[in-house]
Amino acid sequence: MEAGDTTFIVKQLPHSRFKRRRADLIAKQEITLEEALAGGKVAMEHLNGKEVALELKKGRILKPDDVLVVEGLGMPDAEGNLGKLYLILDVKIPQTLPEDKRQALLKIVENLDTKTQVSEEVEEHVIMKDFRQDQKNLRADGELGPEDEEEPVSYTHLTLPT
Question: CB 70: neighbour CB atoms within 10 A?
């Protein structure tokens, strides 16, 4: 820095939806179970305010926390190239399923060879119950892995010649 240069310190505040890693953006994207299983188009509002249609590939089954990448929808870098947009999928799974829909779904998936085989020699059978929110929080206690920590505020130093 030379005498007479003007230095700006820009404080980047966290965004409610997007996180930034250099020129890349990271965001969660909600999709329905139908979209996760069958593909289709999903609309999202980009950081720039424009609506973007995301095409989910048909034939690929998407799972919660899968990450999709979109080239050129990130932030500009120092050379003006746009970074990537990483979307972490949040698949909305219905809490209940009517019997007719359950039967239709079973017909679709019965030939996919995904059913776990249970040996005839199993000595104990148990019935699982729903986990209640007032029960022990395994994730907060560190038993299921670390929580995502809040991103620290980042600073960018700009020096402009005078």
Answer: 16
- Antiparallel, parallel or unpaired: β 154-160 and 67-76: unpaired
- Which tokens go with 128? 């699982």
Which of left, alpha, beta for 17 (phi over 0: left; psi -120 to 50: alpha)? Answer: alpha
Higher-scoring residue by pLDDT: 130, 93: 93
Kindly tell me if the per-residue pLDDT of 38 is higher than 60. Answer: yes
Q: Please tell me the pTM assigned to this model.
A: 0.61
SS (H, E, C) the chain: CCCCCEEEEEEECCCCCCEEECCEEEEEEEEEHHHHHHCEEEEEECCCCCEEEEEECCCCCCCCCCEEEEEEEEEECCCCCEEEEEEEEEEECCCCCCHHHHHHHHHHHCCCCCCCCCCCCCCCCCCCCCCCCCCCCCCCCCCCCCCCCCCCCEEEEEEECC
What is the distance between the alpha carbons of residues 29 and 151, in angstroms, rounded to a whole number?
A: 18
Residue listed under structure tokens 């799972």: 63
pLDDT at 3: 74
Q: How far apart are CA 83 and CA 98, in angstroms?
A: 44
